[in-house]
Design brief:
elongated, alpha/beta, Rossmann fold, 282 residues, single chain, five-stranded parallel β-sheet, 12% strand
């Protein structure tokens, strides 16, 4: 007699989760429609950053694929405001420990201070750092942060073990928070949900190959990015055409890929496509 195995509900496999996330993102949009939709979100990102600079907004999370212009846009706005003595800001890339995050929040705790966490997703693996971040992004009137564990680093720099945080944070990430919260059952889903509820969460909708291809080609074509790096218009169009033909086989689909092609063209205009095929495709 065969044994009937009942599958537990509410616990899809990792493969099922990935498939559901991808399926939810499939659309029938044309490239032009994708560009229009994504451009609107970049405009919102621009305005939200201005809101952080003015003090009207104190927490923004921007999610989107790497190499699409989000970091460049936000950094430019912050640097311009800093040059006008409107704000102080600090940009953090890569890994940051909980105690160093506490020190950073303490240093930039005033109302006109902004911390930009850019591609610092390693923070998600540190429970203490995540709890600090959630406290800093809290919507309460008074945000009091504390570090009650013994720390030689805090003592050495004479940093208070508790303080009121009045600064603002912009978090740029490649992680799709919404997709994980909607379909994921892992340990990070509750943390992402908490961060989203405490901040303004902006998904740039740059996740699928089709979205990335449409946006990268649009940005390069509209702004003449490759011409700024020494190519003529014909060469720029050739680079864009190569990306369109090979998008699904590229290791990295971003504006950076087109900049690499520009480097190949400037190195050897005759064999640039061989270089691209050998180094940029899977």
């Amino acid at each position: 007699m065969s044994k009937i195995v009942k599958r537990k509900r509410g616990r899809p496999s990792k493969k099922d989760v990935a498939a559901r996330i991808q399926a939810a993102k499939v659309t029938n949009e044309t490239p032009a429609q994708m560009v229009t939709r994504i451009a609107e979100r970049f405009t919102v990102m621009y305005r939200l950053t201005q809101g952080v600079i003015s003090g009207a907004i104190r927490a923004v999370v921007v999610s989107g694929a790497p190499g699409t212009g989000k970091s460049h846009t936000i950094n430019h706005l912050l640097e311009t405001a800093h040059d006008r003595d409107t704000i102080r800001f600090e940009t953090v890339h890569g890994a940051v420990t909980a105690v160093n995050l506490y020190k950073l929040l303490y240093k930039y705790r005033a109302a006109n201070d902004i911390i930009l966490l850019d591609d610092a997703d390693g923070i998600f693996d540190d429970v203490d750092a995540m709890n600090l971040l959630k406290a800093a992004l809290d919507t309460s009137t008074v945000r009091k942060l504390s570090w009650l564990s013994e720390s030689a680093a805090l003592k050495a720099e004479n940093i208070d073990t508790s303080f009121v945080y009045e600064g603002a944070i912009i978090f740029i990430t490649n992680t799709d928070f919404q997709g994980i919260v909607d379909y994921g059952k892992g340990k990070l889903a509750p943390h992402f949900s908490a961060l989203m509820s405490r901040s303004i969460y902006l998904d740039l909708k740059l996740h699928t190959t089709e979205e990335l291809l449409a946006w990268c080609c649009h940005m390069v074509d509209k702004n003449g990015i490759l011409r700024q790096h020494g190519l003529d218009r014909s060469q720029e169009l050739d680079a864009i055409d190569w990306l369109k033909r090979n998008a699904h086989d590229c290791r990295d689909l971003s504006i950076r890929t087109l900049l690499k092609i520009a480097g190949f063209m400037k190195t050897d205009m005759t064999n640039w496509e061989v270089f691209a095929n050998v180094t940029l495709l899977r």
